[in-house]
Design a protein that fits this description.
With 332 residues, the chain is of the alpha/beta class. The protein has two domains: 144 residues, Rossmann fold, CATH 3.40.50.2300; 156 residues, Response regulator (Rossmann fold, 3-Layer(aba) Sandwich). It is 39% helix and 20% strand. The protein contains eleven helices and 13 strands. The strands form two sheets. A seven-stranded parallel sheet has the order 1-3-2-4-5-6-12, with helices on both faces. Strands 8-7-9-10-11-13 form a six-stranded mixed sheet, sandwiched between helices. α5 runs antiparallel to α10. It starts with a strand and ends in a 6-residue tail after the last helix.
C-alpha cells in the first residue's frame, strides 16, 4: 500500500505549511469531523472508502482529523493551497466554512457529505437516512417483545431527526400502538463523542421498557451499544457495520455508504461533478446488514418483511417521510 500522508492533531497545519514550499501534487484529501477516524461509525466509514481507493489505485491522499471547530477554515484553505484535489469533508458542520471559501479556490473541487453547498466547484453528497432507518424500525418492531423501543441521537439537529423519524415510521408499520422513546446526547459537536452519556441514556431507556435501542450518535453510540449489551437488550448500530461489536446483541446496523461516497469522489479526482448527489436505498446508499454476527436474530419472517419494505421503498409504494422536508415527524 502506498504511503498515506497523515496530517494529524497539532502538527497538521504546520505540515501543510511546509508542503507549500515543494511541488504541489494533485492528491485528494479527506478531512474527518470531530470524533476521529476510528469512531467505528461515520468517520471510520469515510476512512474505509479512502483505504479502498488506495488499495485499488495505488494512489496516496492527505488526511486530517479535526481537533477543534477552530481548525475548519484554516485546514480547508491550506489543503487547497498545497494543491489537494478534490478535498472531501465529512459532516454538515463544514457547510458554513465551505460556503465562504469555495469561491476563493475555483480550480479546486470540494465534496461535502451530509450538507448542501451551492457552488460551481462543490459536490454535495446527501443520503436518505430515513429509508435505511425505516428498515431498522421494521426489524425493531418485529423483535420487540415489550412494544417499546428507543432511539438515541447524537447532536440534536434536523439531520439526525431524519434517522429518528424513519425509524419510528418503520417501527409503527409493525407495531402501530407501540412506543418510541427518544433522547439526544446534546446540542454541541461534543455530543458525537460522549459514550459515557450514551450509556446512561441507554440504561434509562431500558428502565422505561425499551428492549431495542437504535443509536445514531457517532462515537457516542459505542457506549449505547455497550450498555444495551450489558443490560441484556438489543441495539442497532449506525453508519458503519457495528454488528461485530457485540455479536448476537446488535440486531442490525443501518449502514450509510459514506465509504462509497469518498471512494467515488477520490476516483473522480479533479473531474468531480458539482451539484447534489443523492445516495438512496435504490442506489445502495443506505441499507441494513445481516451477517454472521446477527444472523441468528433474524428469522425468515423478519427477512421477508425487510425485503418487502425494501422493494416498496425502492418502487415508490412506501413513502418514508423526510423530516428535513418540513421539520416534522408524522410517526412520532
Amino acid at each position: 500500500m502506498s504511503l498515506i500522508k497523515s496530517l494529524l492533531a497539532g502538527t497538521a497545519l504546520t505540515a501543510l505549511t511546509a508542503l507549500t514550499t515543494g511541488v504541489a501534487l494533485a492528491e485528494p484529501a479527506l478531512i474527518y469531523d470531530l470524533g476521529g477516524k476510528f469512531d467505528k461509525s461515520f468517520n471510520e466509514a469515510a476512512f474505509a472508502g479512502a483505504t479502498r481507493w488506495v488499495e485499488e489505485t495505488g494512489g496516496t491522499y492527505r488526511e486530517l482529523e479535526m481537533q477543534s471547530e477552530a481548525q475548519r477554515e484554516q485546514a480547508l484553505r491550506r489543503l487547497a493551497e498545497v494543491g489537494a484535489n478534490p478535498i472531501v469533508m465529512t459532516g454538515f458542520a463544514f457547510g458554513d466554512v465551505l460556503t465562504q471559501i469555495a469561491g476563493d479556490y475555483p480550480d479546486t473541487k470540494f465534496a461535502i457529505i451530509d450538507m448542501v453547498v451551492e457552488a460551481p466547484n462543490v459536490q454535495s453528497i446527501v443520503f436518505t437516512e430515513e429509508q435505511g432507518s425505516y428498515l431498522a424500525g421494521v426489524m425493531a418492531g418485529m423483535k420487540s417483545e415489550s412494544g417499546t423501543v428507543g432511539f438515541i441521537g447524537g447532536m440534536d439537529i434536523p439531520l439526525i431527526h431524519k434517522f429518528e423519524c424513519g425509524f419510528a415510521q418503520g417501527f409503527k408499520s409493525t407495531q402501530p400502538e407501540g412506543n418510541v422513546l427518544v433522547n439526544y446526547t446534546g446540542t454541541t459537536p461534543a455530543a458525537w463523542n460522549d459514550p459515557v452519556k450514551g450509556g446512561e441514556l441507554a440504561r434509562a431507556q431500558k428502565s422505561q421498557g425499551a428492549d431495542v435501542i437504535y443509536a445514531a450518535a457517532g462515537g457516542t453510540g459505542i457506549g449505547i451499544l455497550q450498555a444495551a449489551a450489558d443490560e441484556g437488550i438489543l441495539s442497532i448500530g449506525v453508519d458503519s457495520n457495528q454488528n461485530h461489536l457485540h455479536p448476537g446483541q446488535v440486531l442490525t446496523s443501518m449502514v450509510k455508504r459514506v465509504d462509497n461516497a469518498v471512494f467515488d469522489a477520490f476516483t473522480a479526482g479533479d473531474q468531480l461533478m458539482p451539484g447534489i448527489k443523492v445516495m438512496d436505498l435504490a442506489a445502495g446508499g443506505v441499507d441494513i446488514v445481516v451477517d454472521d454476527s446477527n444472523r441468528d436474530l433474524v428469522d425468515a419472517e423478519m427477512q421477508t418483511a425487510v425485503d418487502e419494505a425494501k422493494a416498496g421503498i425502492s418502487g415508490g409504494e412506501i413513502a418514508v417521510h423526510d423530516y428535513m422536508s418540513d421539520n416534522a415527524c408524522p410517526a412520532s
